[in-house]
User: Fold this.
Amino acid sequence: MALSDLSSGHVTELLSTIDGDTLLAALPQLVAFVVLGTRIIGGIMRGAVRE
Assistant:
């Protein structure tokens, strides 16, 4: 049964759907990190320096 599913191409369609859903779920977090990256790094550096 599994070998027939693999050879029919249904598995690859499912994997491409899962990849698309994963990208859509991760996209907002990636955009936020890129936009706020300098503030995040600046905050980390400011907290690491002792005066």
The two ends are 67 Å apart (CA to CA).
